[in-house]
Amino acid sequence: xxxxxxxxxxxxxxxxxxxxxxxxxxxxxxxxxxxxxxxxxxxxxxxxxxxxxxxxxxxxxxxxxxxxxxxxxxxxxxxxxxxxxxxxxxxxxxxxxxxxxxxxxxxxxxxxxxxxxxxxxxxxxxxxxxxxxxxxxxxxxxxxxxxxxxxxxxxxxxxxxxxxxxxxxxxxxxxxxxxxxxxxxxxxxxxxxxxxxxxxxxxxxxxxxxxxxxxxxxxxxxxxxxxxxxxxxxxxxxxxxxxxxxxxxxxxxxxxxxxxxxxxxxxxxxxxxxxxxxxxxxxxxxxxxxxxxxxxxxxxxxxxxxxxxxxxxxxxxxxxxxxxxxxxxxxxxxxxxxxxxxxxxxxxxxxxxxxxxxxxxxxxxxxxxxxxxxxxxxxxxxxxxxxxxxxxxxxxxxxxxxxxxxxxxxxxxxxxxx
Length: 418
Prior knowledge:
Layout: E1 2-6, H1 10-21, E2 28-33, H2 36-45, E3 53-58, H3 64-74, E4 78-81, H4 88-98, E5 101-104, H5 116-129, H6 138-141, H7 144-150, E6 153-156, H8 164-175, E7 179-189, H9 203-211, E8 214-218, E9 221-225, E10 231-236, E11 240-246, H10 250-258, E12 264-270, H11 273-284, E13 293-295, E14 298-300, H12 302-309, E15 323-334, E16 337-348, H13 349-356, H14 360-377, E17 385-388, H15 394-403, E18 408-412
Parallel strand pairs: 1-2, 1-4, 2-3, 4-5, 5-6, 6-17, 7-12
Antiparallel strand pairs: 7-15, 8-9, 8-12, 10-11, 11-12, 13-14, 15-16, 16-18
């Protein structure tokens, strides 16, 4: 099977290495990004360990015609999009035109929130849904009938969260519960990279996500909160006590649609006080803005300028120590009795670096991206239309997590989040 991988950042480099070294999975991989030199460097790194042929190319992921030319010249079974979420729709369009399957790790986000046409659609969606997140799945779900008619599969959000956490939900629903009543997704990074301030994945996405209003789903409706308004402390296996904050996260919307009978879904992520203080300061002075400003005769976007100043997440692996712990706590009913369960993964930053040269945040996203691409290409997760991870049989994915480096734990009767 041939696979085209678009992107060569921190997460992409993990996914590419895992795809290339997976024995008997892919026959040929084409790595493409705006910066071909990065693709070439990674291909050179893999020349002695890859189990398949590797090619590289330059491509503008925002140009449908250019994407189509590349897809048609290579003829892959699928395209794995590990570029920026701003480019999801153009890559989906190209996949439709060329008749290939599509996989990504993060949902679409519009880069220009001041565009009048986009603003009108956004405000209509806010009125209909009652919450104000700049990113959700509705843009991509709108492609369902097009992909279904074309006989193609689009798998959305196969990172860790979204992605693995949704598979955990499907697995719990299939094997442990008759009805799941509540889901708390807990994302803990206990790693220390030694910098005063840095983000473990793309700063534009990370900082916008954390500084935005939070929200959770309860009894059929969205409840919105102020940024970082709800805080809890939880003792994570392998990490210890950590402060965690309720955020809006895209898989809540998907799970609310697909996990029948669920009454509440929340998402929490851990942050240290230094991170929050730095972020608040940057936001107060306008550095998190996506609106272009004029500086010395040039138009610049503040958050993109900030991204250029911060350490590249792809360079953090060598200096990051500690572990991550990401999973889902469930309450519900089994055989008429109350039941609680916790499914989670612990990942060690230094072990990830030794294997693929990355920190655990990139690893926990890149490995599931490889698994999602593999399952779509081999037909185990492949049906026509646009789908999220919880809409497929979880067992092949859960088996692959154990096989490819993300083993999981099932804990009965965990401590619950109040």
